[in-house]
Specification:
Elements: H1 3-10, H2 15-21, H3 29-37, E1 42-48, E2 51-60, E3 67-74, H4 76-100, E4 106-112, H5 116-124, E5 128-135, E6 138-146
Parallel strand pairs: 3-4
Antiparallel strand pairs: 1-2, 2-3, 4-6, 5-6
Length: 153
């Protein structure tokens, strides 16, 4: 993932992704994206016809060495023009991310409850709904996936 990809996708985010990135008082979506990119172990740019239309990756959750945070943001072009191809290839990429990060016993993501596309994507990838909570007046869902490649170090 290149910095120019972050700027390109970040300036054209889907409304649901924008809402998640700015929910806790961040001044812009870029603050959330750059904050998340700081400690990423593995990340990808999703291109549609040569243009960056999505970003996703995995990094430490911050509260436990055994927990990874898997995330994805995208543009409407990704959803409207390439959702089938992206959904189909996501499974393989996520498996590789889990295999390449055996330090995580599990990965998870907090998704705004209105972000039904992200919830459906994570559930198709084998994530299960674990919990719901409210933060800053917004409802979020916690989705978790065990890492079959986990190795306790």
């Amino acid at each position: 993932m290149r910095l120019c990809d972050v700027v390109s996708v970040g300036s054209r985010l889907r409304a649901a992704d924008l809402k998640e990135l700015t929910h806790d008082g961040r001044k812009s979506q870029f603050a959330g994206l750059f904050e998340g990119l700081r400690d990423i172990h593995q990340s990808y740019t999703i291109e549609v016809a040569g243009s960056p239309e999505g970003l996703f990756g995995v990094g430490p959750a911050g509260y436990s060495e055994r927990a990874g945070m898997m995330w994805m943001v995208g543009t409407t072009t990704l959803i409207e023009d390439a959702s089938y191809i992206f959904a189909k290839s996501s499974y393989w990429v996520v498996e590789q991310m889990l295999r390449n990060n055996p330090q995580y016993a599990y990965v998870h993501n907090y998704v705004h409850d209105e972000n039904t596309i992200a919830v459906a994507w994570l559930q198709r990838l084998g994530f299960t709904l674990a919990n719901a909570y409210t933060r800053h007046g917004m409802n979020f869902l916690l989705l978790i996936k065990d890492n079959p490649y986990y190795k306790d170090v």
